[in-house]
Amino acid sequence: MGSFLRSTWTISVFTWREGMRKKTLIGFFILSILTIFGSSVLTAYVAPTSGTSTPSEIESKMIKDICLTTISIFGVLITIFISASVVPNEVENKVIYTVLSKPIRRFQYLLGKFIGVQLTVILNLVLMGILFCIAVYSKEGIFPSLLIWAILLTYCEFLVISAFTFAVSCSATSAVLPTIGGLFIYIIGNLTEYLKDVANRVGESTVLADKIVRETAYWLYMVLPNLQKFSLKNQVLYLSVNDPPKDAQIPQVIAYALACTVVGYIIALWVFRRKEL
Amino acid sequence: MEKTSNIGFAVVLLIAVAITTFQGSRLEKMREAERFYRWIITYANQARTGSEEKKTDADSEGPKAMDAELFKSVVEITDRVLDNVDRPLVKDDYDSNGKVWPKIVLTVKDAVNESNPDVVKERFLYQLAGSNDLAPQRKEFLTYLREKKIAAFGDPLNPSKFLDPNSGDVNLGVVFFGFRTMAANLVWLQVDKFWHQGEMHRMYPLMKTCVALDPNFIDAFLLGAWHLSFNMTAGLPDTPEKLKVFDPIHKMRIGDKERLYNYAIDFLKDGIRKNPKNYKLYFDLGFAVYETKMGDHYNAQTYLSEAIRHRHDQWVPRMLYRALQLAGHYEDALAGWEDYKAKFPDSSKDVVSRSMSTIQGLIKERDAEIEFYLADQEKALADQARKTLAEAKAASDAARAANNEAEAQKQDSAAAAATQKIEQAEAKEKEARAKGDALYAEARAIWEQMSAGESGDPFAFGRIARMDARKMIANQQYREAIGLLDYARYQSNAFWSEGSDMIIEAKQKGGIALNLSERMELARREDAKQYANEAPKQIGGRFYEYRADAWYQDDYRGQVTKPYLPTPEEFAKSKREIPELQQILNLGAVTFQIDDVWYQYTPPQAQPAAIPAAETPGHARIELPVRFTTPRAA
């Protein structure tokens, strides 16, 4: 067991190191830093006003929105790029043959790669989160402790995207297809709510075609990963009004993310096992 | 081997998918329960403040709102399952008819009270919303929500307003992949740009788009309402009464300014529906729009009371006490200030002390005027008894002349009874007048003290001028009164309107020619009278409408009424406790409700002035105080 964990961890660390050397990821990271700090410049255009609102309140809100959006956009790009490239690159470089010739099982290799990807994503997310905290702290003078919850939920979203992108990447020989696939997974994951609208709009119609559409839409809605379920992060960050006690939903959202990830990983493993290497 | 392995994987995958689906469905149920929980809180708050959306079939946009029916059904269940509130009931636990609010409303009220938050109740409400007890209502709620029959959340994000009108129900949020708030910020920057460019007409649609994208963008609601009610109306003239049109939604006649005020009110109410726990929205609606712009003290109190229920800044309650004072609820305002002083003994001492003195002065003035009213009533009784006495004496003399001793004795005893009544009434009148004079003197002493010194309080100065001018008018010293009032209204902003009205009154009584602006004011009043019956009047949170022959409270549906004939003491009491009553009676013939009893009031032929006593002739000639004739130092 110890050897299993050790070798898995070695693969993870190697993957992480390799990930951190990628110029694309560094580029995304630098861009995100520029955007996070540039948020202050954007908010400078907001006019001072009277009444109960102070300019700093609007500025704070805008800074939070810009930073959260930046983290989401660049975070998702980093996640997709890294998840899409780790396995195909190793196949392309033939490194995988060397690794698999050692006493390492495919399951172990894949797990190591997946954990390595997550380490890279987490590190990027943490760095962006720290910068976000600095940006908010410089404006408000208070440490935004709720940000930790917001970033945790953002990570849950990345975890699901990463798992399914990883599954696509296991069947590919280059990183291009999984990258496009990852972007589609992101888009589809956010559009899943639409399926519920489709099911609702068909309503109680008894026409067979309508029934088929309704049932298909409903079951697809239930089965496909729904990234809108992680939209709780805005609520958490702004302590939105009327929110139910936070501790009621967050554990369930995390459990959902883990369940989706397991599905993604099983698909990846299944595909990878069938791959002829 | 390969086949077995694949089957194993398929089974594991199916199990994992089933677990994910189960978890997703669980989360979905939680989200549905959460929506229901939000709706209960939002609608309970709206029901208590009377700000619920009353969308009917007749409204052009969208289907009829089902919130009220659904909430009624929730109340039925929760009244059974909830315990009574575990605290003594307070004044605002009762609705306008004096009935205690349903248990769910009181539970929500306690749960959202940020100054004394009841976290247990908040959690309990959340669990209740997701419980089996309310499962049918929850299901019904979700159906209504899908059918857009829930109005409590305000204007939903309706993509048909932004995209193709036939595009259906796709949530625009989906299009932005959760970056709606970012999009809202960019829209807001555009609003800001239009504001700087002076293109205010282009701001309103964008502000609505902005809050549709980000319903929790509180500052957009606040600034939007501020632009609408203050900036856009800044240069607008008042609309003449005949050019105003009736607005059936807000039940009032409106001109350009009022239309913008109503936009601001609707905008803020939409914000409150979406953010019912944010004090700023209640505060701006109550103070900035209702109080400052519309002079609607009742609604101002309602929303400011709600503002202080949520987490708020320290100065917020002061605006509530001010609104209470302006509405005539002096005791409540004074109690509020005392509470504030006890909580923040070192905060704005000058303001607190001045406000308390002002209210004490106003209470004394009001009580004095009530005493004068009672004295006048006694005087009327004495006059009536004198008439009876004269008649009895005459009848007695006539009976004696006709040798009808029995009748003469009967008339003598009637005369004796009348004499006794006169003595009693005169004594009471004297006593009441003395009390009134003493209270007036006390009030005056307060005003004198407040207005003393170089930085004297202008409000107190206005009150003194008012007192003196009243006496001058009673003494027929009209020109002196006009001079004093004209000077005083420029010194005291708060006195401007009343001072100007008193000048007109003095000029009319003294037969002095009115100037152009005064004649225009009278013309405006005459103009307004023509349309007075065309729109309902809102007094103390209730609407009164004119139906063919008289005014009726709008929910009057032929209930049994009794004539409103209070004794002078009862009337005086109600003047203290229901300051709005005088406004209701001023409507003329009116049917109204107090504490579940319907009254019908018919004004007497010659209705006495509401506060006639201060004008009772017989005062010594009033000399203009020197300091009133000398401009005060800058």
Q: What gap, in angstroms, lies between the N and C termini of chain B?
A: 103 Å
Report Rg of chain A. 21 Å
Number of helices of chain B: 23
Shape summary of chain B: elongated
Please compute the radius of gyration of chain B using only Cα atoms.
Answer: 32 Å
Straight-line N-to-C gap of chain A: 26 Å
Counting helices, strands and paired strands, the structural category of chain A is mainly alpha
Largest inter-chain contact set:
A-B, 58 and 61 residues
> How many E strands of chain A?
0
> Residue-averaged pLDDT of chain B, rounded?
83
Biggest β-sheet description of chain B: 6 strands, mixed
Uncertain stretches of 5 or more adjacent residues of chain A: none
Q: Into how many domains do the coordinates of chain B divide? A: 4
Q: Which strand order does the major sheet of chain B show?
A: 3-4-5-7-8-6
Mean pLDDT of chain A: 82
Describe the structure.
The complex is a heterodimer of chains A (277) and B (634). Chain A has helices at residues 2-21, 23-43, 55-93, 95-100, 106-140, 146-170, 176-202, 208-223, 232-238, 246-274. With 277 residues, chain A is an all-alpha fold. Chain A has one domain. The longest helix of chain A has 39 residues, at 55-93. Chain B is mostly helical and 634 residues long. Chain B folds into 4 domains: 24-153, no CATH class; 172-296 and 306-315, Alpha Horseshoe (Serine Threonine Protein Phosphatase 5, Tetratricopeptide repeat), CATH 1.25.40.10; 357-531; 537-603, no CATH class. Chain B has helices spanning 2-49, 67-81, 103-111, 119-129, 135-146, 172-175, 180-197, 203-213, 218-231, 256-274, 279-293, 297-309, 316-326, 330-343, 349-401, 405-451, 458-474, 478-491, 496-510, 516-531, 568-577, 581-586, 626-629, and strands at residues 245-247, 252-254, 537-539, 542-547, 550-553, 561-563, 590-594, 597-601. Chain B is elongated and about 140 Å long. The relative contact order of chain B is 0.06. The model of chain B is unreliable at 156-171, 606-619 and 626-634 (pLDDT under 50). At the A-B interface, helix 3, helix 7 and helix 10 of A face helix 1, helix 4, helix 7, helix 9 and helix 11 of B.
